[in-house]
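Hi there. Long-time user, first ticket. I'm pasting a complex I've been working with (about 643 residues overall). I'd like to know whether the download I got is complete or cut off, because the file seemed smaller than I expected. Thanks.
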Amino acid sequence: MTITPASVVSARDLGLTFETNDGPVNALTGVNLDVNKGDFVSFIGPSGCGKTTFLRVIADLEKPTSGAITVNGTTPEDARKNRSYGYVFQAAALYPWRTIEKNIALPLEIMGYSAADQKARIDRTLDLVNLTGFGKKFPWQLSGGMQQRASIARALAFDADLLLMDEPFGALDEIVRDHLNEQLLKLWDRTNKTICFVTHSIPEAVYLSTKIVVMSPRPGRVTDIIESTLPKERPLDIRESPEFLEIASRVREGLRAGHSYDE
Amino acid sequence: MRRLTSLQTFLVLITGLQFFTFYPLLATPYLSGPRWGAFLMLPLIIYCLAFSLRRKRKKPIPALEWAALAYLIAFVPITLSSLNGFGSEAPPTNYWTTVIACIATAWLLNELLSSSNYRNAWVARLAFYAAPLIFGLSVLYLWEVLTRGLHIPFVLLPPPSMIWTRLIHSLPTLWADFQQTFLKAVITGYALGCGLGFLVAIAIDRSPFLQKGLLPLGNFVSALPVIGVAPIMVMWFGFDWQSKVAVVVIMTFFPMLVNTVSGLAATSSMEKDLMRTYAATWFQTLVKLRLPAAWPFIFNALKINSTLALIGAIVAEFFGTPIVGMGFRISTEVGRMNVDMVWAEIAVAAVAGSAFYGIVALIERAVTFWHPSVRNARTV
Ligand SMILES: Nc1ncnc2c1ncn2[C@@H]1O[C@H](COP(=O)(O)OP(=O)(O)OP(=O)(O)O)[C@@H](O)[C@H]1O
Ligand SMILES: [Mg+2]
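Hi, the file is complete. Here it is re-exported in full:
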């Protein structure tokens, strides 16, 4: 097993089986993947194919039952304890007793940022997700999409080099989604973060990623890894270019193949 | 025109029928008190009724409510003060129809107040607080009229007026009892019992073994009758209020422990995962996630305990106490057949208990404002 120093996530023959009351569930089998520093990796695949589970393994929220995985060259547990990633859950998971501001401040408080620094970071990230002016509201006073954006802001507020995002834009309308896609690309470009991004949308995956991981279910495994040939500079209308469409059709074929295996 | 529900219409009809039976009564020597009020109010009632029946009003004023209120102001004092005039005789039938009409009108007023949406915020707030007040006053009114009108022996149930007179004339005694039982035993025991329950719940948080072992014990102790524990505590801690504190501590400790333990377990796995991704310590997770999520449970215990503590302290005094205290007073005055004093003491206990509960509930609303049960209740 060789791990290049630039490798942020490196999985070798990774497998995870949940022991449930109805018998074992194979959520992941034989996953081999390298995510390099500065990569933007999208995970795409039908529901239940283990995308969330894989992200959770990286985040040390789930222990693999076979194979090996390193995060930032160490075990996922050490990486978590070093606070080396920010996680955006599939649901917003904001605390209802805290205002939006205070929710964003939560990781900052835990990691011991100074009050002034907290304030600056809250303002900056609220602006990033277009929620300026909503900081004093409580989560239950906002729409589902606004809550999801607040949870993205919370993950961006502290300096983690690795961002794990589980369908962060799933609940948003097309226009806001475009805007946030652009913002995310800019942020990624500026900060040189590594991003693992789960999505169900092929255009979104192709538009954002340098690498697209196509997964298929039962048992969850990686069926195709597509390296994007798109330039790093990506205006929104790149989505009409032939290059873009070609990658999109490759992803679609990969997804279809996974599905037909199923039937 | 305002649309009335069938219940409201029925109540209006009952009150209307009373008019035919009541006015002959005014001429009899039975009635005493401000009987002219009935005549003065009559035009006002009729005017309000007519007003409320007018069609096509853009902003309906609560005319029917005013009519009901005017009716009550006219007839409740008459029915009450006439009670003196009956002596040992039974009141005539048309007296009782008036009483029934008063109750029907109070009920109608409450129905109207709670079913209408008043535009003016102040009127709406007034209606919100008036409804329970009217209900309470109606109960007192009925109690007074029935016990005195039916000549129920005072030993069985004294009328509220008698209890009130006794209460006013025994304030120093009642205050001393209140101090002894409520301020010393209840408050101290409540604070100690709840505080200990809370601290122990946090102390055993990391030990599933202790949690599993202590919770059944908690249920067991909750099932212990105070009657059994109180005499033992009196033997251990003496006659004064300290033994009552011990009883209250025993009664309040386990509800607090059990509720805090389940409150601390009430966070969702995603909320906890979030803390895990921040590599938060146990203490940080406790303070920033699990305690806030546990507040609704903890306040539940605080509310249950506020009533348990009072019951415990009063009952414990039945088993030995210096010659002061609410429980002591109740048990000795019952022996002397001074039931009015017993009821005065009960009234003090009821008011103190409700106020205690109310304060805890108010704090709860402020602390758990985010909880769906509080958010949804905030309509006024
Ligand atoms: N805690 C768990 N216990 C048992 N089985 C689980 C658990 N978590 C996930 N699974 C199973 O593992 C499989 C993969 O689940 P996962 O959540 O990773 O899917 P996903 O790709 O994220 O799907 P979606 O796109 O719907 O979010 C599913 O079959 C699911 O039932
Ligand atoms: Mg998922």
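A couple of notes from our side: Residues 198 and 243 of chain A are 22 Å apart (CA to CA). Chain A touches chain B through 23 residues (CB under 8 Å).
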